[in-house]
Write a structure and sequence with these properties.
The complex is a heterodimer of chains A (362) and B (386). Chain A is built from twelve helices and 15 strands. Chain A is an alpha+beta fold and 362 residues long. Chain A has two domains: 185 residues, Alpha-Beta Plaits, CATH 3.30.70.20; 123 residues, Rieske Iron-sulfur Protein (3-layer Sandwich), CATH 2.102.10. In chain A, strands 5, 6, 7, 8, 13, 14 and 15 form a seven-stranded antiparallel sheet that branches. Chain A has a four-stranded antiparallel sheet with strand order 9-10-11-12, with no helix packed on it. Chain A is elongated. The N and C termini of chain A lie far apart (101 Å). With 386 residues, chain B is an all-alpha fold. Chain B contains 15 helices and two strands. In chain B, 64% of the residues lie in helices and 1% in strands. In chain B, strand 1 and strand 2 form a beta hairpin. In chain B, helix 7 runs antiparallel to helix 11 and helix 9 packs across helix 11. A two-stranded antiparallel sheet of chain B has the order 1-2. The chains are: A alpha+beta (362), B mainly alpha (386). At the A-B interface, loops of A face helix 9 of B.
């Protein structure tokens, strides 16, 4: 008694229909897809629905299946024992539109006395004609309908409501489809020729071949890995000789010697008490900044990073100061060793430059 | 502005140039573009009328091609690399107008209860002869166009790379100038990897985030104002306008110049950048009486559990945490309530990831231009700067 049945009382289509046939396939009694007009209509019988005349629950399924979600409907919940009354009310006018497998449909298949029986399905023949209804509930219902003479009889009958309840408990897809519905389903199925693989077969074959291809291809490509590497890696000698220290004697604090920018990829800069070798590569994206002597700053032409004469970043996007190379005096020569770098992490975090290898005191 | 206009010593042309240069400071230029964009969305039924848009196009063409009398502007737009920019400006204007025009017509029709422009039109055409002929004509015209272009304009080739001779400014190909502009404001991993990746990911994710069928197959603005505004903002302002900024306004040393200004590589421009942590730990306590002394914290806390940089960057972490994680919750309860209920949790999260990063770009650009803000979060130790 506590179980409730959901009945659709109203259905409509919101704008945005893409005319795809899905709804007509699912609920042919309700929807009519008009390809010529590029729209989808509700059939008049379903359009006239009033509160007392529930529509086929197929609408719910059709709404779920609609790819663009434009099918809208109203639901009411009815206690299961009252549902047959609504169903009966629906049975009379809706009888000519065979509703596939709703509680109402179960009635429609029976010969209701006050209603037009479906012309293509004469009621009296039904019990004998339908061997497929082996379901006991259906069988009971059909038996009740035949014996007592119609839907009105079912309601009045002592055992009939229980049979109806049995049907109501079943989910729509468990119920046998009626002939028309079955026909629509049959027609909507994609044509499958013999020997032509289905989508599922193509997909699984694709996945299988793909996995096999990866399994074979990746290891064999890894065999070529060595082939992708150069046999000889030419790197410039990391140590660069810049000549005697006296060469930089005239360099004033804050000045930059650009002599080795091209040949050695570094600048020699003079701080108050020391000389240092600064890499010419911008710490932002690897462009090469210009030394602007008049402005006393390095300025990158790619993204506008600016560095002070000692290499600390102060404008633009560069996150860190310019890198410094190891510099020392070897046999009277200033030697810059580019294999050893001193990376300061920020303009205020330059302690690493105080390393004795990072500069030459002057 | 009034000083420029009232400068009695200058000729009318000079005053006009001064005004345009003044308006083309980046913060004003992008703000004006955004205001114009919002006006265009609001008054889309007015400006899309053929007479109005024709007048606007003629006026703009006079302005644009008349500007060629200025030597610097002439040099910019006649550079072979930049010829596509002129085409880009006019083509983008045209297709934007076309779409908004049809949207305006459709929206008026729906209001009057008439069928849409697209209603009843059958898109189906025959491959032969319709499609093949069209393709053939396009092919011939494009080939002719490319040959003429290749003959008339010399390829913008430069001498072999030499570290001591760097082009100044060093500009990317024109279509990447928007991305190059982003690199000025963000770390390479954000501007070069994350943001372009999010653009592609976002475009792929769009149909899964926005499942509303309205506007499918027909032009409309009235039915989808929010979605179209957001998309057009990302496209017109964040892509096209940034390309224009990169082409016309970026000069030597990657400084900003007006379109009529001489590109002086020795012009001194002071751009002392500061981080949020500098503002919080140094600027604020030295201005106001705050309980902490000016100076960046450099001591780890809790016995080394919390490194110094976490404490140093705590203000930025709080700001970004609020922006990325608290803002979406607040918005879902207030302004985006409807959107949240439509999207559900997962799609709303994806929506906010895309939206927050897109909005972070203009936010940070404006903060850089106005306050020289460098990073919200500057953990250089991890190369993690936002």
């Amino acid at each position: 008694m506590s179980t409730a049945v959901k009945l659709v009382t109203k259905v409509w289509i919101a704008p945005g229909c893409i005319v795809c046939d899905a709804c007509e396939t699912t609920a042919p009694s309700v929807f009519e897809v008009k390809h010529d007009d590029g729209t989808c209509l509700i059939r008049p019988a379903a359009l006239d629905a009033e509160f007392t005349k529930p529509l086929t629950p197929d609408i719910i399924q059709a709404a779920e299946e609609c790819p663009v979600d434009v099918i809208k409907f109203d639901l009411i919940e009815v206690p299961a024992d009252q549902a047959p009354k609504f169903a009966t009310a629906a049975a009379a006018p809706a009888a000519d539109k065979a509703e596939p497998h709703a509680p109402a449909a179960a009635h429609a298949e029976g010969p209701a006395p006050g209603a037009k029986a479906s012309p293509e399905k004469p009621a009296p023949k039904k019990p004998t004609e339908k061997p497929k209804s082996t379901d006991p509930a259906i069988a009971a219902l059909i038996a009740a309908a035949t014996i007592r003479g119609g839907a009105a009889g079912i309601i009045k009958g002592a055992d009939a409501p229980s049979a109806l309840k049995e049907i109501q408990k079943q989910s729509p897809d468990k119920l046998p489809p009626d002939a028309r519905y079955a026909k629509v389903i049959e027609q909507s199925k994609p044509e499958k020729k013999d020997g032509e693989p289905s989508r599922r077969e193509i997909l699984s074959a694709g996945v299988a071949w793909g996995i096999m291809g990866l399994g074979v291809g990746v290891p064999s490509l890894m065999g070529f890995q060595r082939f992708m590497m150069p046999n000889v890696l030419e790197e410039p000698e990391p140590k660069f000789r810049c000549g005697p220290l006296s060469r930089f004697a005239n360099l004033q604090p804050g000045e930059v010697d650009e002599t080795f920018k091209n040949s050695g990829k570094f600048w020699i800069i003079r701080e108050e008490e020391r000389l240092a070798a600064v890499s010419i590569v911008c710490t932002h994206l690897g462009c090469i900044p210009n030394w602007l002597g008049n402005d006393r700053k390095f300025k990158c032409p790619c993204h506008g990073s600016g560095f002070k004469p000692n290499g600390t970043n102060f404008e633009g996007p560069a996150p860190r100061p310019l890198e410094r190379f190891k510099i020392n005096i070897d046999a009277g020569q200033v030697v810059v060793d580019r294999s050893k770098k001193f990376l300061a992490m920020g303009p205020n975090d330059t302690a690493v430059w105080n390393d004795p290898d990072a500069s030459i005191p002057v | 502005m009034f000083e420029i206009l009232a400068n009695s010593g200058a000729s009318l042309g000079e005053r006009f140039r001064g005004l345009v240069n003044w308006l083309c400071a980046p913060e004003k230029f992008v703000s004006l573009a955004t205001v114009g964009f919002i006006l265009a969305l609001v008054a889309y039924r007015k400006w899309t009328k053929p007479k109005v848009i024709l007048t606007v196009t003629i006026l703009f063409s006079i302005f644009y091609f008349g500007s060629m009398t200025d030597h610097n502007f002439f040099k910019i737009i006649t550079k072979p690399d930049n010829v596509p920019i002129t085409m880009l400006i006019f083509f983008t204007g045209f297709v934007t107008w076309l779409a908004f025009r049809q949207a305006a017509i459709n929206d008026e029709r729906t209001e009057r209860g008439e069928p849409l422009l697209e209603a009843g039109s059958d898109d189906k055409v025959l491959v032969w002869p319709d499609l093949v002929y069209t393709e053939l004509i396009c092919l011939v015209l494009c080939t002719v166009f490319l040959i003429v272009w290749a003959i008339i304009l010399k390829a913008p080739l430069e001498p072999p790379a030499n570290p001591s001779v760097i082009p100044n400014p060093s500009k990317a190909p024109w279509y990447f100038l928007g991305l190059q502009e982003l690199l000025v404001y963000f770390d390479p991993w954000i501007a070069g990897v994350l943001l372009p990746g999010l653009i592609i990911f976002g475009l792929v994710a769009l149909p899964f985030i926005d499942k509303n069928p309205r506007g499918n197959g027909y032009y409309t603005l009235k039915e989808r104002p929010f979605v179209i505004s957001v998309y057009m903002f990302g496209w017109v302002i964040m892509w096209i306008v940034l390309i224009i900024v990169g082409t016309f306004l970026r000069g030597p040393n990657w400084n900003f110049f007006g379109p009529y200004e001489y590109w002086d590589s020795h012009r001194p421009v002071a751009l002392l950048n500061i981080n949020v942590s500098d503002v919080f730990w140094i600027v604020m306590p030295s201005k106001w009486n705050l309980p902490w002394k000016p100076g960046l914290p450099n001591q780890a806390a809790l016995g080394g559990l919390v490194p110094a940089y976490i404490i140093r960057e705590a203000p930025g972490l709080v700001l970004l945490g609020f922006y990325f994680f608290v803002m979406p919750v607040l918005l879902a309860k207030t302004a985006f309530k409807k959107i949240f209920s439509q999207l559900g949790m997962i799609r709303y999260v994806v929506f906010w990831i895309l939206m927050s990063w897109m909005l972070l770009v203009p936010i940070k650009m404006v903060l850089r231009w106005l306050f020289n803000l460098k990073y919200f979060l500057a953990i250089t130790e991890w190369f993690f700067n936002v």
